[in-house]
Amino acid sequence: MLAPVIPHLSIAIDTGGTFTDCVYRNRGRIEVLKLPSTPDDPSRAILEAVRRVCELVPARRVEVRHGTTVATNALLERKGARVAFVTTAGFEDTLAIARQARPNLYDWNQHRPAPITSLTFGVPERIAPDGSVLLAPSKSALANLRGAINDSEAESIAVSLLFSFANSAHEQAVAEALASLRLPISLSHQILPEFREYERGSTVALNAYLAPRMQSYIRALERGLEKRSAALSIMQSSGGILSAASAAREPVRTILSGPAGGVIGALSVARIAGIDRILTFDMGGTSTDVALLDANREPPTTSEGQVEGLPVSIPMLDIHTAGAGGGSLAWMDSAGALHAGPQSAGADPGPACYGRGERATVTDANLVLGRLHPDYFLGGAMRLDEARAHKALSAIPHRSFASLEHFAEGIIRVANARMESALRRVSVERGFDPRTFTLLAFGGAGPLHACALAESLGIRRVLIPAAPGALSALGILDADLRREFSRTVMLAPASPQISEVFPALEAEARAAFASESARPILKRSADLRYHGQGYELRIDWSADAFSRFHKLHEQTYGYSDAARSVEIVTLRVQAIARSPKPHVPQAKKGSESCAPFIAQSHRAMSGNTHRIFENGRWRKAALYDRAQLAPGNRLTGPAVIAELSATTYLPTGWEASIDAQSNLILTPNARSRQ
Amino acid sequence: MTTNRQLDPAEIAVIGHALHSVAVEMGAALRRTSFSPNIKERRDYSSAIFSAEGYLIAMGDDMPVHLGSMPMSVAAALADLRLMPGDVALLNDPYRGGTHLPDITMVAPVFIPGRRRAAFYVANRAHHADVGGMYPGSMGPCREIAQEGIRIPPVKLMNSGKMDTQLLATILANVRTPREREGDLTAQLGACRIGATRMLELVDRFTHPRLVAAVAAMLSGSERLMQNVLASLPAGEWSAEDFLDDDGVIPDPIAIRVKIATDPKRRRATVDFAGTDPQVPGSINAVYAITWSAVFYVFRCLLPAEAIATAALMRPVNVLAPEGSIVNARPPAAVAGGNVETSQRIVDTLMRALAPAIPDRIPAASSGTMNNLTIGGIDPRSGQPFTYYETIAGGLGASPQSAGASGHHAHMTNSLNTPVEALEYAYPFRMIRYGIRPNSGGAGKHRGGDGLIREIELLGDAQVTLLADRRATSPWGLNGGAPGEKGKTLIVRSGEDENLPGKCTRELKRGTRIRIESPGGGAWKTKS
Question: Which of B59, B418, B420 to mutate to test the interface with A (most CBs of A within 10 A)?
Answer without folding.
Answer: B420
